[in-house]
Amino acid sequence: MITTWWAGLSLAMKMLWGVTLVASLIFVVQSVMTFLGADADSGMDIPDDASGLPDDLDGGTNLYTFRNFVNFFLGFGWSAILLRERIASTALLIFVSILVGVALVAAVMFLFKWLSSMQQSGTIDLHKSAVGCSGKCYIPIPAARSGEGQVQIVINGTVREYGAVTDGDAIPTGTPIKVLEVLGEETLLVEAPNSLII
Predict the structure, then answer these.
(1) Between β-strands 134-139 and 187-191, what pairing exists: parallel, antiparallel or unpaired?
(2) 5: DSSP letter
(3) What 3-state DSSP class applies to 9?
(4) Rounded to whole angstroms, what are the CA distances from 71 to 106, 120, 159, 160?
(5) What is the pLDDT of residues 76-104, one digit of tens each?
(6) List of domains in the chain
(7) Is the Cβ–Cβ distance between 100 and 76 less than 8 Å?
(8) Arithmetic mean of pLDDT, 7-19
(9) Residue 42 reports pLDDT greater than 60
(10) Quick one: which H or E segment has residue 78?
(11) Which residue pairs from 146-152 have beta carbons closer than 8 angstroms and sit at least 24 positions apart in sequence?
């Protein structure tokens, strides 16, 4: 059945189906990798400036990425396949398919940019709300900022782990702590309750 159907296709339709199916498969793999937290575009960016360095994919600002090429061919291919019986003009069919492909790329770029901005905004709010939170020491914290340990704190009902330093004595694992200050992207200044200055 499938063999007969495939044999009846023209060379152009075979190529179109081939590109579309490959793009669809890659799209599924990329989606799975994205949900699993992997970077499906790693090492596959095409430079878009004189420096040869690609923009950050997560920011959604780089047009020339492997992901965007896949999205374009996904939109283009399926549009051409699904609309070929409804649009008699080949030129019009190609034009409409190109528009759909470009629209899909734009939509995905907008989505990534929006998600990136939401993530950055959430990080800032998270750090502002970390000060004053209580938790416990997860990995021992050396005294007098001589090294970094790790703490678990509860923010908005969610347990989060951060690197931590202290100005006081060393804080062993399991000791209750309180966040005094946010020092960096992932580092907190904490003290144990018995060393807090009241």
Answers:
(1) unpaired
(2) H
(3) coil
(4) 9, 25, 36, 35
(5) 999 999 998 888 888 898 999 999 999 99
(6) 2-127 (no CATH), 131-195 (2.40.50.140)
(7) yes
(8) 85
(9) no
(10) helix 66-83
(11) 148/187, 151/177, 151/179, 151/188, 151/190
In this predicted model, which residue has the larger pLDDT, 35 or 29? 29
Q: What is the pLDDT of residues 98-150, one digit of tens each?
A: 999 999 999 988 887 776 666 555 554 556 678 888 899 989 999 999 999 99
Candidates 180, 198, 176, 178; CA nearest to 189 is: 180
pTM: 0.48
CA atoms within 13 A on the CB side of 92: 7
Please choose, from the candidates 45, 69, 75, the residue with its C-alpha nearest in 3D space to the C-alpha of residue 57: 45
Amino acid at 74: L
> Which residues sit opposite 158 in a β-bridge?
155
CB 164 within 8 A of CB 190: yes
The count of other CB atoms within 10 Å of the CB of residue 58 is 15
Which two tokens mark 27?
Answer: 């799209």
Q: In angstroms, rounded to a whole number, what is the distance separating the alpha carbons of residues 83 and 27?
A: 21
> What confidence tier does 166 reach under pLDDT thresholds 50, 70, 90?
very high
Pairing of strands 149-155, 176-182: unpaired
